[in-house]
Amino acid sequence: MHVTLRGAGRRYGLGGPWVLRGVDLDVPEGAVFRVRGPNGAGKSTLLRLVAGIDAPTEGRVIGRPRTAYVPERFPPALPFTARAYLTHMGRIHGLGRPTAARRAGEWLERFGAGAHAGAPLAELSKGSSQKVAVAAALLAEPELLVLDEAWTGLDTAARDTLDGAVAERAAAGAAVLFVDHDPRRLAATADATYEVEGSTVLRSAGVGGATVVVDAAGPAGHEPALPHPHTRLRLDPRTVRITTDAAHSDAVLRTLLAADPPWHIVAVRTPEPTENNG
Question: How far apart, in Å, are the Cα atoms of 143 and each of 6, 45, 91, 175?
Answer without folding.
Answer: 20, 20, 17, 6
